[in-house]
Design a protein that fits this description.
four-stranded antiparallel beta sheet; about 300 residues; DNA-binding; Helicase, Ruva Protein, domain 3; single chain; 8 helices; N-terminal domain of MutM-like DNA repair proteins; EC 4.2.99.18; glycosidase; FPG_cat; alpha+beta
């Protein structure tokens, strides 16, 4: 699943190629992916792309509309979409001229074409989704806040308002495992499973550490790690074409997705341990016992709690 750094890079990539261009057509390939009906996707046709923005893990293509689809006072319409686990953006300088045939989405593991956006110069992009669990979500709205999941997003972790004090308040609000807080989009927007693993390695905390136990020093350490990890990942993704972002993300991971490999250490000095994994029904997390849990391995949460 793309997280804040990749979504930010995708926004930059699309903005550089679409801003100022006119949308010639929007074709729906997967009816299941489209979550709204008013305005319809066709209302974007004839409008000019004015910006591409990011809200947490959501992408937002703002289009100055032509005709009756316009928002209040001629405000842009917004094509907002969440790629979820299997979705992706596929850009083409010359899209196929063959019309997209709508479907219900199906259960194929192969990539399904969910939406195609055509621009006036023949270029454009497809939203595709692979895997049997189709979760890609596409909305056409007059205001991004009309999408409840965007309206309820928490603080942006790289915004000036995300201070150590704000993080302390979030940690105290509910006594839960720290990994769960980092992944909670209503608390902190844009961090998912992969970067929460990375942040916890760099800050040297167990993913199961309870938020109510954080001291001021530990809170500051976690805050620093959040900023450092995300800033580093954004710099690594910046300027890369969409097709290279997945590989760039994998290459930059210290522990996530590296089960059984030597741990590089929280400070770039190998600690001598191997990366461990805990598996869940629909995901897994990786960590280093030496760097994060005092040398104690974590038990599989499907069976038991942290070995003490």
């Amino acid at each position: 699943m793309p997280e804040l750094p990749e979504v930010a890079a995708l926004a930059d990539f699309l903005r550089a190629r679409t801003a100022g261009r006119t949308v010639s057509a929007v074709e729906v390939g997967s009816i299941a992916a489209l979550k709204t009906f008013d305005p319809p996707p066709a209302a974007l046709a004839g409008g000019q792309v004015v910006d591409v923005a990011r809200h947490g893990k959501w992408l937002d293509l703002a289009v100055s509309p032509a005709g009756s689809g316009a928002g209040p006072d001629g405000a842009p319409l917004h094509l907002v979409f969440h790629l979820s686990r299997g979705g992706w953006v596929r850009w083409s300088d010359a899209l196929s001229t063959k019309p997209v045939r709508p479907s219900l989405g199906g259960s194929s593991r192969g990539a399904v074409l969910a939406l195609r956006v055509r621009l006036d110069d023949g270029s454009g992009f497809d939203l595709t989704e692979a895997g049997t669990r189709k979760r890609l979500a596409v909305h056409v709205v007059r205001d991004p806040a009309d999408v409840e999941m965007i309206a309820s997003l928490g603080v942006e972790p790289l915004a000036p308002e995300f201070t150590t004090e704000v993080l302390a308040d979030l940690l105290k609000a509910k006594n839960q495992q720290v990994k769960g807080l980092l992944r909670d989009q209503r608390a902190i927007a844009g961090i998912g499973n992969a970067y929460s693993d990375e942040i916890l390695l760099v800050s040297r905390f167990s993913p199961y550490k309870l938020t109510g136990t954080f001291t001021p020093e530990e809170t500051a350490r976690l805050h620093q790690a959040i900023g450092d990890v995300l800033t580093e990942a954004i710099e690594a993704a910046s300027g890369k074409p969409a097709k290279e972002l997945k590989d760039a993300k994998r290459a930059g991971m210290r522990v996530h997705g590296r089960t059984g490999e030597p741990c590089p250490g929280w400070n770039g000095v190998p600690c001598g341990d191997l990366v461990h994994e805990v598996s869940f029904a629909d995901r897994s997390m990786q960590y280093c016992p030496t760097c994060q849990t005092g040398g104690k391995p974590l038990a599989d949460r499907r069976m038991s709690k942290l070995l003490r």
